[in-house]
Amino acid sequence: MMLPYKSLTEPFEPDAYLKRWEQLERKVAAKGFTWATLYENYEDNQYMSDSLLMVPSSLAREVENASRAVHDVFQKTYEQILKDRSIVHKTGISVFLWDLLLEGGKTAFSYFTRYDFIASANGLKLIEGNTDTPVGLIESAIAQPLICEEHGSKNPSDRMTTHVKNAWNQIIRDYNIGSTDTLYFTCADWHEEDKQTVQFLMNLYPQRAKYIPLEKIVVEKDDVRTPEGERIDFLYRLYPLEYFLAEEGPTGEKIGEQLVVHIMNKKIKVINPPSALLMQSKAILALITEKKTEWFTRQEQAAIEKYFLPTYDTAHSLQSYVKKPVLGREGGGIQIVANGQVLDEDRDYYQDQPVVFQQYFPMPDQTIDTWDGPYTGKLLIGSHVINGEPSGLFFRVGERITGNLSMFVAYTTG
């Protein structure tokens, strides 16, 4: 299922292409999308394609329907785990965090989520849920409409800003954030993508907000503060919760663990809530396979059969599978095996984690324009679900393992 696409330079001519691309790069950078080029492996890598995918309206609607169904299954799974808390040991998450993950309460398990799907002639399949710290928001909200405008095409993904605003209003109610309270926003200050994403979300927050670099947060014995001594009661963190456990102070003190203790003791409230990390574990996918008939209604079972790939904590009887670390990110630690043969693998990251084995479902080929001419890679569809509502698609084209350098490409429908 290769989608047709529009080019800005036909036929391809390197100098003309690069000139047009650089003009577009300046336009998106002025709006906050500043990583159209990524410097990795000692060279510049193209991350943004200026091609425009022509996506059938029926496929866009199906992804939206699948996103709602998948989100409902995740919500039901979260509720079932809260009823049988002994299951948390299967998630591969540090025991230090278990009590925090299982608090429950009136907040959503996640307000900002992205589900990743593979679409082919054989159907639409979920490969994972990014429920803790999803990115791709800037691409969908800022770069997407600008690229559509460049092509003179309609932007079908225009709901994200409204849904983010609705999410903040819901969070203000759920967290009881007063009009005089400050919501602090943080991420690793050196990380451009995260910093711009945080700025985008902060700009849509309707009450008092301040940015604080992760490196500047002061964790004290009794609370968490800014360098100026202001107490931090509410914190939006675009930083994986499990990473905090490894954070140390200048003399080796366990400041990350102390921060987690403050969260447990209600000294500080974080967004996304800790339950978002619980549902981020890929072991959740194996639980959904294992508990399909026990936990779910017939309608939910039908959604699982339609959209979820069978996933297990052992290779089971699978001849073709994707082995995934339960808390891996950006394709790290993944191995793809087809009919007993290794097609691709990453051995650099997350080798010490428990793994799950997910039935292999090949990604379709997709051609887009790049600096080096037409490139054919593998297509992955991200679907943002914000405050429970499908809020925009995020297409990437890359290798079999979708890593950090897989290229973003905008789309229109017809």
Automatic annotation (TrEMBL):
Which residues lie in coiled coils? none
Q: Which UniProt keywords are given for this protein, alphabetically ordered?
A: ATP-binding, Ligase, Magnesium, Metal-binding, Nucleotide-binding
**Which regions span the lipid bilayer?**
none
Tell me the first and last residues of the signal peptide: none
Q: Which GO terms describe its molecular function?
A: ATP binding; ligase activity; metal ion binding
Q: Which Gene3D superfamilies match?
A: 3.30.1490.330
Q: Which InterPro entries match?
A: GSPS_pre-ATP-grasp-like_dom, PreATP-grasp_dom_sf
The Glutathionylspermidine synthase pre-ATP-grasp-like domain extends over 25-410
Q: Name one Pfam family in it.
A: GSP_synth
Protein name (Swiss-Prot/TrEMBL): Glutathionylspermidine synthase
